[in-house]
Amino acid sequence: MHTKLIDGKEIARKKRKELEKRVIQLKGMGIYPRLAVILVGDDSASMTYVRNKQKACEEIGIESDVYHYEAETDEETILQKVEQLNQNPSVHGILVQLPLPKHIDSKKVILAIDPNKDVDGFHPINIGKRVLGERSLVPCTPLGIMVMLEEAGVSIRGKHAVIVGRSNIVGKPIGQLLLDNDATVTFCHSKTENLRKYTLQADILIVAVGKPRFIRAEDVKEGAVVFDVGINRDENGKLCGDVDTVDVLPKVSQITPVPGGVGPMTITMLLANTIQAATMNVDEFSD
C-alpha cells in the first residue's frame, strides 16, 4: 500500500494564499482585519509563538498588535485591557497567549473576551454554539485537522474516528467537528481500558496525548488515516510526535509527519478565524 504523508506546510501555504486574497477583498470593502495579542511574562516558547503569529499576519496583510506585560502584572490590568479591546471596533480578534502566570486566572480572562472576537475558540459561548451546530469560532488545531482531511481527500461520513486525548483545545473540539461531519466518534483517554481495542477500529485516528511515539504499528488498523498532534522531544532531544511514524508508516494509508504536519496549520487557522471574526456581519463572506 502506497503511504502518503499529509504535508501540512504545503496545505498551509495554499490556504494562506487564499486568505491573502480575502484580505485584499475585505480592504477593498473598507474592512481591515486586525488581531490583538496579549502576552504576559517572558516565557521563551510563548514569545516565539507570538512572533510567528505576528509574522504570519504580516505576510497576508492582517494588522496585528502585541500588548506585552511584565510577568508580575496583576489580573485586573489584563482584564481591563481585554475589555478595552472588546470595545474597540477596529480590533476583530483577541488572543491571550497561554499559559498565563499562576496568579492570573486564565478561565476568567478567556471568559472576559467578546465571543465574536475569540479567535482561539475557547470561550464557553463558542463551545456551546459548536455543540449545537451553530456557526462559531473554532479552536485552531482542530479546524486545521478538518481542512487537512478535506485537502487529503479523506471521506469522513460514516467512518469511525477514534480520538486519543480529551483536552478542551484538541480532543473534544475535533470530536465535535467530526461528529458534525457524520463520523462515528470514540474518545479515548488515560483511564481507557484496553486502548488498543479502540485504536485498531479507527478509520481515522487522531492522537493528542503528549507522549513520544506512544502509538505503534500494532495499535493501528491497516489503511487507517492518522493525525499526529503531539510535539515532543525524545531521549536524544529530537523532535517527534505521539505516533511512531517510522513504525506505522507501512501500515497506514495517510499520516501527518512531525514536524511539518498539523503544526503549520494551527497559525494558518488563527488567520482564518481573524478573517471570519472581521466578516461576521458581512453577508458576502458568511460561510
UniProtKB/TrEMBL annotation:
<dbReference type="InterPro" id="IPR020631">
    <property type="entry name" value="THF_DH/CycHdrlase_NAD-bd_dom"/>
</dbReference>
<comment type="pathway">
    <text>One-carbon metabolism; tetrahydrofolate interconversion.</text>
</comment>
<dbReference type="GO" id="GO:0004477">
    <property type="term" value="F:methenyltetrahydrofolate cyclohydrolase activity"/>
</dbReference>
<feature type="domain" description="Tetrahydrofolate dehydrogenase/cyclohydrolase catalytic">
    <location>
        <begin position="6"/>
        <end position="120"/>
    </location>
</feature>
<keyword id="KW-0028">Amino-acid biosynthesis</keyword>
<dbReference type="GO" id="GO:0004488">
    <property type="term" value="F:methylenetetrahydrofolate dehydrogenase (NADP+) activity"/>
</dbReference>
<comment type="subunit">
    <text>Homodimer.</text>
</comment>
<dbReference type="Pfam" id="PF00763">
    <property type="entry name" value="THF_DHG_CYH"/>
</dbReference>
<dbReference type="GO" id="GO:0005829">
    <property type="term" value="C:cytosol"/>
</dbReference>
<dbReference type="Pfam" id="PF02882">
    <property type="entry name" value="THF_DHG_CYH_C"/>
</dbReference>
<dbReference type="InterPro" id="IPR020630">
    <property type="entry name" value="THF_DH/CycHdrlase_cat_dom"/>
</dbReference>
<feature type="domain" description="Tetrahydrofolate dehydrogenase/cyclohydrolase NAD(P)-binding">
    <location>
        <begin position="139"/>
        <end position="280"/>
    </location>
</feature>
<dbReference type="GO" id="GO:0035999">
    <property type="term" value="P:tetrahydrofolate interconversion"/>
</dbReference>
<comment type="similarity">
    <text>Belongs to the tetrahydrofolate dehydrogenase/cyclohydrolase family.</text>
</comment>
<protein>
    <recommendedName>
        <fullName>Bifunctional protein FolD</fullName>
        <ecNumber>1.5.1.5</ecNumber>
        <ecNumber>3.5.4.9</ecNumber>
    </recommendedName>
</protein>
<dbReference type="InterPro" id="IPR000672">
    <property type="entry name" value="THF_DH/CycHdrlase"/>
</dbReference>
<dbReference type="InterPro" id="IPR046346">
    <property type="entry name" value="Aminoacid_DH-like_N_sf"/>
</dbReference>
<keyword id="KW-0658">Purine biosynthesis</keyword>
<dbReference type="InterPro" id="IPR036291">
    <property type="entry name" value="NAD(P)-bd_dom_sf"/>
</dbReference>
<keyword id="KW-0486">Methionine biosynthesis</keyword>
<keyword id="KW-0511">Multifunctional enzyme</keyword>
<keyword id="KW-0368">Histidine biosynthesis</keyword>
<comment type="function">
    <text>Catalyzes the oxidation of 5,10-methylenetetrahydrofolate to 5,10-methenyltetrahydrofolate and then the hydrolysis of 5,10-methenyltetrahydrofolate to 10-formyltetrahydrofolate.</text>
</comment>
<dbReference type="GO" id="GO:0009086">
    <property type="term" value="P:methionine biosynthetic process"/>
</dbReference>
<keyword id="KW-0521">NADP</keyword>
<dbReference type="GO" id="GO:0000105">
    <property type="term" value="P:L-histidine biosynthetic process"/>
</dbReference>
<keyword id="KW-0378">Hydrolase</keyword>
<dbReference type="GO" id="GO:0006164">
    <property type="term" value="P:purine nucleotide biosynthetic process"/>
</dbReference>
<feature type="binding site">
    <location>
        <begin position="165"/>
        <end position="167"/>
    </location>
    <ligand>
        <name>NADP(+)</name>
    </ligand>
</feature>
<feature type="binding site">
    <location>
        <position position="231"/>
    </location>
    <ligand>
        <name>NADP(+)</name>
    </ligand>
</feature>
<dbReference type="InterPro" id="IPR020867">
    <property type="entry name" value="THF_DH/CycHdrlase_CS"/>
</dbReference>
<keyword id="KW-0554">One-carbon metabolism</keyword>
<keyword id="KW-0560">Oxidoreductase</keyword>
